[in-house]
């Protein structure tokens, strides 16, 4: 029996024998053209699924009882019922999950993704007491009648970023560039934003959501940066490096951080974790000054994952090279 490459579960063919289906992941497109505007699809001729299993906002739970199997389908009505049961049990893609995929394509950082994940779950997914807080903003998007689904998802993404900034979960991003890149209309974003804020207000009134304005996260960002620099300095000294060389590395790191606008609301990487950014810049400073054998220890000194630092460094490398200059 053929198994799914993603979850290693059995794969059955659809009733007509044309589409193969994984009972765990859902449909697997084979040889079909992929939607290049949807970043949730992976590259390749046999891309599996449309969103990753990790980071899902939620899924529908299937009904309890017997299920209609493929061999039990006798007519068109059975086929419709089987398809509905399949969707309910195997968590068909939610609109909120696809919005989160659009957001991830912007590479704004983990902090932004976590804030958007929470806000999307509160505003785009039905709650238990939905009758008290209707309408759902997802349904209110029907005013966008002449656009495709991708356009609607991107409108929601920009509106969610505004909501997150309003409640100080993140600092405002350059939404103008995003709107121009995606070709959105501002009036659509404003309308969606109003619907989201109204939904949050109704949920707070009914006690279904506790969303308060957070304290300015940059009040402590300076302290965190100071602690990171101190840990790196202590680690370099403990490794046996000369004090003068340690001072050179620390000064170079601080100068680079200042060029990036840290710690400030106007910093280029304002929504990136300060310890991750400091580790990346410290490794860059060590490399530029020509010291070898110390870059791999930065993550240890900060109690962080070296793989996570390297992955984020690759994402922002081009921007850093343009601002700080390339590493020879």
Brief synopsis:
The protein has 328 residues and is mainly alpha-helical. The protein has helices at residues 76-89, 95-104, 110-123, 130-133, 137-140, 149-166, 175-182, 186-205, 221-238, 243-259, 274-288, 298-301, 306-324; strands spanning 11-13, 20-22, 26-27.
Spell out the key features of this protein.
328 residues, single chain, mainly alpha, three-stranded antiparallel β-sheet, 4 domains
Write a structural description.
The chain has 328 residues and is mainly α. The chain is built from 13 helices and three strands, in the order βββααααααααααααα. Strands 1-2-3 form a three-stranded antiparallel beta sheet, with no helix packed on it. The chain starts with 10 loop residues before the first strand and ends with a helix.
**SSE order, as H and E?**
EEEHHHHHHHHHHHHH
What structural class do you assign from the helix and strand content? mainly alpha
> Which strands sit side by side, in order, in the main sheet?
1-2-3
Overall number of domains? 4
Q: Total number of β-strand segments? A: 3
* Mean pLDDT over the residues: 76
Low-confidence stretches: 29-55, 59-64
> What would the principal axes of the Cα set say about the shape?
globular
Instruction: Please report the distance between the alpha carbons of the first and last residues.
Output: 53 Å
Count of alpha and pi helical runs = 13
Helix content: 40-55%
């Amino acid at each position: 029996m053929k198994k799914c490459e993603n979850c290693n579960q059995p794969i059955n063919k659809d009733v007509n024998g044309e589409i193969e289906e994984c009972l765990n992941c859902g449909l697997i497109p084979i040889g079909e053209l992929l939607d290049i505007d949807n970043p949730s699809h992976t590259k390749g001729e046999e891309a599996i699924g449309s969103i990753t299993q990790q980071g899902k906002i939620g899924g529908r739970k299937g009904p309890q009882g017997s299920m209609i199997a493929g061999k039990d389908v006798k007519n068109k009505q059975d086929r419709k019922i089987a398809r509905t049961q399949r969707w309910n049990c195997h968590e068909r893609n939610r609109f909120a999950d696809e919005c989160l995929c659009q957001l991830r394509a912007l590479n704004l950082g983990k902090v932004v993704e976590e804030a958007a994940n929470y806000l999307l779950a509160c505003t785009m997914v039905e709650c238990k007491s939905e009758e008290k807080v209707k309408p759902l903003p997802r349904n209110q998007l029907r005013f966008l009648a002449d656009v495709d689904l991708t356009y609607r998802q991107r409108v929601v993404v920009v509106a969610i970023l505004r909501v997150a900034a309003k409640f100080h979960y993140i600092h405002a991003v350059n939404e103008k560039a995003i709107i121009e890149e995606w070709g959105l209309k501002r009036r659509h974003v404003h309308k969606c934003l109003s619907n989201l804020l109204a939904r949050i207000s109704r949920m707070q009134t009914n006690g279904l959501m506790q969303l308060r304005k957070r304290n300015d996260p940059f009040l402590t960002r300076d302290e965190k940066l100071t602690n990171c620099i101190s840990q790196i300095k202590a680690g370099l000294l403990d490794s046996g490096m000369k004090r003068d060389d340690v001072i050179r590395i620390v000064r170079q790191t601080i100068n680079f951080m200042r060029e990036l606008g840290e710690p400030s609301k106007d910093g280029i990487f304002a929504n990136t974790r300060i310890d991750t950014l400091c580790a990346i810049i410290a490794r860059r400073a060590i490399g530029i000054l020509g010291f070898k054998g110390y870059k791999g220890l930065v993550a240890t000194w900060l109690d962080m994952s070296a793989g996570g630092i390297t992955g984020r460094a690759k994402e922002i490398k081009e921007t850093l090279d343009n601002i700080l200059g390339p590493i020879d």
